[in-house]
Each structure stands twice: as structure tokens, then as C-alpha cells.
Design brief:
Helix content: 25-40%
Largest sheet: 9 strands, mixed
CATH superfamily of the largest domain: Metal-dependent hydrolases
Bound molecules: N-(aminocarbonyl)-beta-alanine, zinc ion
Number of helices: 15
Shape: globular
Radius of gyration: 21 Å
CATH class of the largest domain: Alpha Beta
Strand content: 15-25%
CATH architecture of the largest domain: Alpha-Beta Barrel
Number of strands: 21
Number of domains: 2
Distance between the termini: 35 Å
Structural class: alpha/beta
């Protein structure tokens, strides 16, 4: 038997969700062995991380790699997407597997497993998106949970493609409740969106801004409230994805005040971009088309407030990139533009500047909202904390090493960068996944296939572990 390789990250500032201190991190093999004042074992590799923050690797619980959507495929696959993740300090992501056959969830899971296996640079899990909830599908949910997929997603929008109706949503939530699984919703009233889109197009309102104008805030707030009421009725645990505005977050707060087990996330772009980005000319405006849409800037402070108070408990990216060529399909009709933004690489840098440097959150809150809370919510029991026995998923962040945004520094497989021309005040120096260096000073140094599928725990597993 060979001794496992040891690595010491020496002299950094260790940040956890609870606080920060000057210290070292000892990694042995794939696990954290010690944190604090650490003596390097003989033969250990010692990496000087003085002046840097040492944090648990970020987790992105909301990504769409190789997603077939609106007749296209999102442009990052598991190889390029997880390289970009690692470059952004992300060591684990949970992607959406999407039901495509009427009755089958397991075949969808097998399809997504096939895409990821041998390709990923960081660890990954899956949520299962149910798009056709008949009896056979609902029966299939148990087998999916047994395979380590502990959350189901329902789209309340994208009528005719992904949308679930309320009766099916209720039945899925009941089944998820019985399995100890989490139900996630994309909350927009798809019927109303469809009506407003048809009216806008009939009036000749075809450019990108009308995407946002036909999906007003109340449409998201109404769907959020409806999902929360159904969760209240069923007793299911609910997670509202990509909350964009004060009105929708207020519905989550109200449900929480009634004792309903509802949590929510927002995404980086809803904290830093605005509806005005969709007014940019030509394909540039189309790049910012996502659903729910970017909102008025007055929502930023409100969202940060919900994040600080934990009503929005986490921040993900909803990474779903499409190239300019793909986006240009809807230049004359916004409803044909594939929805989604390339963000996976930029969450840490953006939240550092707009959150920590701007004085809105502390480094510990950043860790909580981008890693630790996500690990707890999604049953990633080995992730999200730098503690002995946990996976050695670590990001070393240098707050004094500025880095330009742009396609020249991006690993995302898109031909533009939403933040081109801007400079982040700090940058990722190293990303380690289970003790292996994946990203090192601007370079990806791992091979596809290092990343592994992670089985996730259900609420029942967590109860068993606590008992
Ligand atoms: O526009 C978005 N958000 N695209 C990805 C699919 C989704 O709704 O999450
Ligand atoms: Zn969505
Ligand atoms: Zn999404």
C-alpha cells in the first residue's frame, strides 16, 4: 500500500461559514486531515498561500451543461463547463437531468450520467427535472432517489416544452415528500407569459427587451406564492430557484413566516445585472435573455437584504450558455432566443466585489451562501466545509491579484463574456478537488474524468445520521 499524498496550504486565512482565522490546511489523499497550526508530514508538498483566503470550494447547485433547450444545446459540455467551474473556484456542481421520454426518468438520468462520465474536472450530482408527470413517472421517482438524486425540479413556465401543470406539480410534491426528496420550482406563470408574448409579437414588439417586459415581476411572484401554497398543502419541502426580485422573495418570506418549509436562492446575475442590459443593440441584447428575466436595479439592494437575512439562503449561477450564433436566432423574434447566461466562472469574483468589497456581506457569509448552506440543503454531506474527514475541495482566493474578465481569461465555451472590459479586484489562485490541483494560476491542470458523480442524501438520510 502506498502512503496517500499530503499537501499543506500554509499561512493563509481560513474562512468558514462561521468565522475566519489565520491557519494552515493539511490534506492527506482526498480528504482534509487538519486545519489550524499544522505540521507538515515528511514528504508533504507545502504551498505558500500567504495573503490569500482559503475557503471550501464553491458549490453550484444550478447549472445546465449540454442542455437540450429551445431546439438547441447549451454550449458548455461537462468538460468545458467544469473547467470553467474550477477556474471560478467551484469544486462541485449539481446539474439538471431532464425527462425527455413521457414515462421515463431513469433513462434521462442514464443519458446525463453518460454525458458527464469521463468528462468532468470537478465532482457533480444531478437533480431530476420532471416534464411529464403521469403515474409511471411518479412511480419512477423512487428509483431515481435510490440512485443518489435527491431533488426534483418542476418548471411552471416554458409552456409546450418543459412546463408542468398544478395538478401534476401537487402529485410530484406529495411523492417527493414521501421520499424525503426536495422539490425545486422555476416559478413563473407560464400561461400568462405565453399570452403576453403572443400579444407583444402581434404588436411588432420583437426585440430583446420585450422578453423582460412580457415576464413582469408579478408573474414570478404569483407562481412563487402558488408553489409555496401547494407545498404548504402537501407538506413537501420546497426550494425556489433563481429568485429575481423583491416581490417574489417577499412571497418566500411570507410562506416561511407561516412555517412552510420553503427556501430560495438567487443567482449572481440578478444581483449585478439589470433589465437595461437587454436594451443593448443586436445580438448583444439577446445575450442577456434568461428566465425569469433581469430586473430593475432597485431589486439589487432588496435581494442582498434577503440574502443577508437567509431568506434567500444561497447564490448559484443558473449557468446555461449559448453562443452568439445560437442567440442570433431570435434577432427578429425574442421568443426564439435560447434562454440562459454564461456565469459559472464568475460567481466568486463578482460576489467578492459586489458583496464583500462593497460591504454587503462578510467573507463568511460568502462561504455560507455559495458553499456550506448549499451542501446542507442538497445532501452533499462530504462537501462545503473545511473540516477533518471532509473532501479536500478547496479554493485559494487572492484578494490582491486583479484579473480581467473577457474571452481571453474565460474557460466557458462561448464567444463573448458578459463582463468583458471589467476587471475583478481579486482572483482564484488554486482550486483543489478532493486534494488534486485542478486549476493553478490561470491554467487547468487536471484531466477530464477526475470529477466523479456524487450521490446525495435525502432528508430521511440526514435524520438517520442525526439520530
Ligand atoms: O434562462 C434560463 N434560466 N435558462 C435555463 C433554464 C432555466 O429556466 O433555468
Ligand atoms: Zn429556470
Ligand atoms: Zn436553470
Amino acid at each position: 500500500m502506498t502512503d496517500a499524498k499530503a499537501v499543506v496550504l500554509r499561512g493563509g486565512r481560513v474562512v468558514s461559514a462561521d468565522g475566519e482565522f489565520d491557519g494552515d490546511v493539511l490534506i492527506v489523499g482526498e480528504r482534509i486531515a487538519a486545519v489550524g497550526d499544522v505540521e507538515a508530514p515528511p514528504g508533504a508538498q507545502v504551498i505558500d498561500v500567504g495573503g490569500c483566503l482559503v475557503m471550501p470550494g464553491l458549490i453550484d447547485n444550478h447549472t445546465h451543461l449540454s442542455m437540450p433547450f429551445m431546439g438547441m444545446m447549451s454550449s458548455d459540455d461537462y468538460n468545458t463547463g467544469t473547467q470553467a467551474a474550477a477556474a471560478g473556484g467551484v469544486t462541485c456542481l449539481v446539474d439538471f437531468s431532464i425527462q425527455r421520454e413521457p414515462d421515463q426518468l431513469q433513462s434521462a438520468l442514464a443519458e446525463w450520467q453518460g454525458r458527464a462520465e469521463g468528462a468532468a474536472h470537478v465532482d457533480y450530482g444531478f437533480h431530476m427535472a420532471i416534464t411529464n408527470a403521469n403515474e409511471a413517472t411518479i412511480d419512477d421517482m423512487a428509483a431515481v432517489v435510490e440512485q443518489g438524486v435527491a431533488s426534483f425540479k418542476l418548471f411552471m413556465a416554458y409552456k409546450g416544452e418543459l412546463m408542468t401543470r398544478d395538478d401534476a406539480m401537487t402529485a410530484c410534491m406529495e411523492r417527493a415528500r414521501d421520499l424525503g426528496a426536495l422539490t425545486m420550482v422555476h416559478a413563473e406563470n407560464g400561461d400568462v407569459v405565453d399570452l403576453l408574448v403572443m400579444r407583444a409579437l402581434a404588436d411588432g414588439q420583437t426585440n430583446a427587451i420585450h422578453h423582460a417586459l412580457t415576464r413582469p415581476e408579478w408573474v414570478e411572484a404569483e407562481a412563487t406564492s402558488r408553489a409555496a401554497r401547494i407545498a404548504e398543502f402537501t407538506g413537501a419541502s420546497l426550494f425556489v430557484v433563481h429568485v429575481t426580485c423583491d416581490a417574489a422573495a417577499a412571497e418566500i418570506q411570507a410562506a416561511q413566516a407561516r412555517g412552510v418549509p420553503v427556501a430560495g436562492e438567487t443567482c449572481t446575475q440578478y444581483l449585478v445585472n439589470t433589465i437595461d442590459d437587454l436594451r443593448k443593440p443586436d445580438v448583444e441584447g439577446c445575450r442577456y435573455i434568461c428566465s425569469p428575466p433581469l430586473r430593475d436595479a432597485r431589486n439589487h439592494d432588496a435581494l442582498w437584504g434577503y440574502v443577508r437575512r437567509g431568506i434567500l439562503e444561497s447564490i448559484s449561477t443558473d449557468h446555461c450558455p449559448f453562443t452568439d450564433e445560437q442567440k442570433a436566432r431570435g434577432l427578429d423574434n425574442f421568443s426564439l432566443v435560447p434562454n440562459g447566461l454564461p456565469v459559472i466562472q464568475h460567481r466568486l469574483a463578482k460576489l467578492w466585489d459586489e458583496g464583500v468589497v462593497a460591504g454587503r456581506i462578510t467573507p463568511s457569509e460568502l462561504v455560507a451562501r455559495t458553499s456550506t448552506t448549499i451542501a446542507h440543503r442538497f445532501g452533499l454531506t462530504q462537501k462545503g466545509t473545511l473540516a477533518p474527514g471532509k473532501d479536500a475541495d478547496v479554493v485559494v482566493w487572492d484578494p490582491n491579484a486583479p484579473r480581467d474578465y473577457g474571452t481571453h481569461t474565460s474557460f466557458m465555451n462561448v464567444d463573448y463574456d458578459l463582463y468583458d472590459g471589467e476587471t475583478a479586484s481579486g482572483s482564484v489562485r488554486h482550486t483543489l478537488s478532493r486534494g488534486t490541483m485542478v486549476y493553478d494560476n490561470g491554467e487547468i491542470v487536471s484531466s477530464p474524468g477526475h470529477g466523479r458523480f456524487v450521490r446525495r442524501a435525502t432528508a430521511f438520510d440526514a435524520e438517520g445520521a442525526a439520530a
